[in-house]
Amino acid sequence: MSANVLCIKWGTKYGSEYVNRLHKGVRKNLSGDVRFICMTDRGEGLHPDVEVLPLPVTPFDEASFDARKGGDTWRKVGLFQPGIAGLEDDTLFLDLDIVVTGSLDDFFTYEPGKFCVIHDWLEKKRAWMPGRDGRVGNTSVFRFHPQKHTRVYDYFAENQEQVLEDFRIEQQYVTRTLSNDLAFWPSEWVCSFKRHCRPTFPMNVVRPPHQPSEMRVLAFHGYPLPEQAIEGYQASIFKSTLPATWLKDYWNDAA
Q1: Is the pTM here over 0.85, yes or no?
Q2: What InterPro entries does the database record attribute to this sequence (predicted)?
Q3: CATH architecture, domain 2-184
């Protein structure tokens, strides 16, 4: 039986090299056979071992969503549609702007059958606020069961207007919908470059980014992108970083 790994690529922000790097990083760090699937509208340049499928069907006007800030991530709802890619077993989804830095084997044995996701770092800190409990996932890395978790798609398709009124971003909706099956990855497995590697001001201007020792996956939400972090990122004084030279080994090794 193959381990199922899924990614999605649309538009031009990320080229085929991001998919190919991700594929190579997965193959290096996941034991056994792997079915690596990329759902995309642009399949040119992908490694021949990448299974290329069309973008998932979505029950909304994608062009209008793409025009909204963060609206394009609602496309992930389409990954939960019944019969997606003929998948029958637990499937690991990975964003394209992540870097695999360690073994992925445990991502398939941890809490089998549940919806496993990153415990969103910012929402965790907001748990004290009225109306919040902090139990929101970050869907850069999640594992779902394609037969058990189709209600994410089904409910959205029937209640789109209400869902968009109740939830600002897709990961809030997905997490709440699957709250009864929810499990968060161990915090040391998936790290955020911004929150775990980049020193806070003023140390970010004199100290290079840190490499967490137990990390398996490094997530890049927003900016910098991985190649920008490697070279050093110039933005506001609070968001700039010195070069993350250690990251270059993982990034180039997967090229």
Answers
A1: yes
A2: Nucleotide-diphossugar_trans
A3: Alpha-Beta Complex (3.90)
